[in-house]
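Record format v2
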Amino acid sequence: MTGTQDDAAVTYQLRLFVAGTNGLSQRAIENLRRFCAERMPSRYDLEIVDIYQQPELAARYQVVAAPTLMKLAPGPVRRIIGDLSQTARVLRGLDLPADGP
Amino acid sequence: MAEAIKVLLRPMTEDRSPQAYRAGLLKAPTGILGFDEITLGGLPAGRPTLVCGAAGCGKTLFATTFLVNGATLHDEPGVFMSFEERVEDLEANVASLGYDLQGLVASRRLAIDHVRVERSEIEESGEYDLEGLFVRLGFAVDSIGARRVVLDTIETLFSGFTDPSILRAELRRLFGWLKERNLTAVITGERGEGQLTRHGLEEYVSDCVILLDNRVDDQITTRRLRVVKYRGSAHGTNEYPFLIDDLGISVLPITSSGLERDVDSTVVGTGISGLDDMLQHRGFYRGSSILLSGVAGTGKTTLASHFAEATCARGERCLYFVLEESAREICRNAGSVGIDLRQRADQGLLQFEPARPSLFGLEMHLARMYRALERFRPTTVVIDPLSAFRGPAVQVHATLLRMVDMLKARGITGLFTSLRTDGSIAEATDQGLSSLMDAWIKLLDVEANGERDRILYIIKSRGMNHSNQMREYRITDRGVVLTSAYVGPAGVLTGTAREAQEAMERAEGTRRLRAIEQRRREHQRRRQAVERQIEELRMTLEQEEEEVAALLAEAAETDAAIARNRDAMAARRSFVSQG
């Protein structure tokens, strides 16, 4: 795990767009919290936006699918859509090394 | 079928009447010239319409026009959701048409949202829906109170997301949502193989489907539009040619075979008094089609210029389609015979519509003509020359038929010039044309005695009597002047031959008069001579008569003397015998 040193240096800036409090939203929030706690404890900055409450942000940030997780930093900006139940894909989406050998 | 045609011909203003509403279908006019006519009012209001076609066939322009006209003409704000082009590109693309998207956005009559979906930037992890799209659309619609929506081209989403089943479910939900919100929507879709759109959008949007097509034949592009489906409404089912140029989109509604129309019996003068004289009512019926055919250099354009000038002089508008020359040339040439067409153009009574026949297909010409008619609303039209339209005879004929129909339906008098390469009447094209035309003037070129003379005659003029005379005409600096051609035992004489003949006749006449005078004098002399003779003879007769009378008297005398002698003798004799 050569990247561990570098990873430790950066703080992940994440923004999760959800649409209300439906099942998808709740699952996405839970999955993301767990993921962050496990993979990047105290190295992340998470903001959750409900596009029902702030619809203008959906256009501004090019949100089409819900839920959408945006990684704003470190660059490049990436998007992960879905309830974030597939951890491997979240890792890939955040440019984090995959699990296992 | 006849009923359907009648419905098609009904002016579109009627379609917004209460009756049309009662028919159960509200329409949202697109403001696209001709389109609202073939759909009897526009797109189905409050419902989505699918506009599909291959790349570059005008889907986005159609959609934009629908929104801009809605916002500016019908007080219906609109949302443009673009999945392909950026806002700046959209603005730039339609700026040449005079559409000020930025201004419309600023005045809150238009909202544009560019939805960018980049597959490479997106990782999918687990279940999702497209609620973001709904929120954005809902927000844009609510922010300006939109009544119209454009989704251009929503199929792009299929390349952005891997799970088509989610997409399909969400699209179904989206179109349902649009209907629920009573939004008139245009959804564009790229033409797919074997189906209307690549991803089968027609499955979801089934109220109204419009197909745009762009075909190239002989290096000439013809755009066509077809209403594939319009649930709950009658509509034209043909392929209609349409135009895209600096004036936007216009569709040519083909409402041909409309022979039921009002007939006007007022008359339009030709602008040439000698020619008017040849017609019973001093001109042609308004709304009729007049063919002016002749070989090169017979002055077809000059006669047409007279006709145009006469229209303007009446205070009416004339639309002049120039197919082989330029408007300037026509003006200059008309000026040389004393007709100031430029001034008429400046007055706004005359409009030139130049077009090169080879630049457009026949249908494009029709579409352009339709648009020009709709915009300028002339009472007379000149097409100079009609023979410039070339192509397969059947197509040319069909085009001309529609052209004539289009004019007749509007009560416009049309003058068509036609160049003929030889003087024969029985040309196939002319024959086909003739049945379409109400009147036919033929211009002839007679070569004799080392000069060319021009003759015209009227082959036909439906519904009115006309002169059967051939007339010679001269193109002078004060226009076309007709003179009676010399028609005598030696045939038709024109020009100097006519003049020579006339001079000869005058001389002949004098000679004849002199001869008669001489005969008269001779006769007089003879008469006197004869009378003298008669006198002499009578005198001779009288003389003879006198002589005869004298002889008679003498004879009587003699007889008496003889008798006396005989009596004396007898007396004497009897005396002797008794004794």
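Chain A touches chain B through 35 residues (CB under 8 Å).
The domain at 17-91 of chain A is CATH 3.40.30.10 (Glutaredoxin).
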